[in-house]
Amino acid sequence: MIIKINNLYFSYQSGKEYNQFKLSVDDWGINKGAFLSLLGPNGSGKSTLLKLILRFIKPDRGSIFINGVDIKNYKRKDLAKTVAYVPQKITSAFPYSVYETVMMGRTPYMNFMGFEDEDDRRIVKHALETFEIDHIKHKGINELSGGELQRVMIARAVAQDASIILLDEPNAHLDIEHQVSIYGILNELRRQKRITILTVTHDLNLAGIYSDDIAFMVNGRIVISGKKSEALNEKNIREIFKVNAEVIKYTDDILNVLVKPDKLN
Ligand SMILES: Nc1ncnc2c1ncn2[C@@H]1O[C@H](COP(=O)(O)OP(=O)(O)OP(=O)(O)O)[C@@H](O)[C@H]1O
Fold first, then answer.
1. Which of 56, 50, 42, 44 has the alpha carbon at shortest distance from 5?
2. End-to-end Cα spacing for the chain
3. Which atom of ligand 1 lies nearest, measured to the CA of 45?
4. Which of 5, 18, 48, 84 is least buried, going by the fewest C-beta atoms within 10 A?
5. For the residues 100-127, what does the mean pLDDT come to?
6. Which value, to the nearest 10 degrees, does the dihedral of the CA atoms of residues 162, 166, 168, 171 take?
7. What's the CA gap between 46 and 75, in Å, rounded?
8. Distance 22 CA to ligand 1 centre (A)
9. 69-70 sheet: strands from edge to edge
10. pLDDT digits over 212-253, tens only?
11. What's the whole-number mean pLDDT along residues 142-160?
């Protein structure tokens, strides 16, 4: 397993009684080269789990191993070369351009002076073209539409050339064409380079089409995890999201999830 979690426990130390959120993952992991969709209701802890894997926050107990090494023991640069992240919310106080933002993905590879080289420029150019943002490369990132910005952040993660990409609701601002195209590009990268993809999403349908593994998180715990064909079924969707859905097997690899409008009581 490329990511392996053991007896992980985390709570936000806000000191406020109303914040009772606790995350607890006993034994869970992701295989190398997998495309896993992490699904679950609002506030169930999906983003928190990503932040723990990224070492943005520290667990109270337990460990996360990446490539067999506890992330506590990674140098910051080495972790950045291994794990790239596309955040849910993007804010920048400084008006970096699209080009500069994608180039930031190359930071872990630059020398201490922070100079880019020919390789960095070639990789960034390729990422700008792949995600169709070459024509806006001189624009400031505060001057973009939500979908353009999302593509910039995904391009930055791909330019980082990491073996794991974590995405937090990457399709939130994308139109249908770009949702399909970005999931397709990620899938292609996974095939070509055996990149591991972990994406948090609320889109059951895209998860059913593109991922091969599904994990459901409820109240800070991973309650179901497995192959899409087994985990993404009508019973699980009903129990977790309290909605009726029809899961249509389009091919062995493609499941379409049709959510029915009537909410369960
Ligand atoms: N920085 C923080 N300090 C205190 N509590 C937090 C913080 N960030 C998140 N929480 C709380 O932790 C819980 C889990 O939040 P998290 O963002 O991980 O959920 P999520 O499953 O990603 O939700 P969503 O689907 O709404 O994005 C929520 O109850 C949230 O209010």
1. 50
2. 39
3. 18
4. 18
5. 91
6. 70
7. 25
8. 10
9. 22-30, 3-11, 61-66, 69-70
10. 999 999 999 999 999 999 999 999 999 999 999 999 998 888
11. 91
Pick the CATH number of 3-263 from 3.40.50.720, 3.90.226.10, 3.40.1280.10, 3.40.50.300: 3.40.50.300
At 242 the pLDDT is: 92
Report CA(111)–ligand 1 centroid distance (Å): 36
> Is the CB of residue 48 below 6 angstroms from any atom belonging to ligand 1?
yes
Beta partners for residue 254, in sequence order: none
Provide the ipTM: 0.98
Give the residue extent of every domain in the chain. Answer: 3-263
CA dihedral 252, 254, 260, 265 (to 10 degrees): 70
* SS3 (DSSP) at 38: strand
CB atoms under 10 Å from CB of 99, counted, come to 19
Task: Report residue 203: phi and psi, to 5°.
Answer: -95, 95
Structure tokens at 222: 């991973």
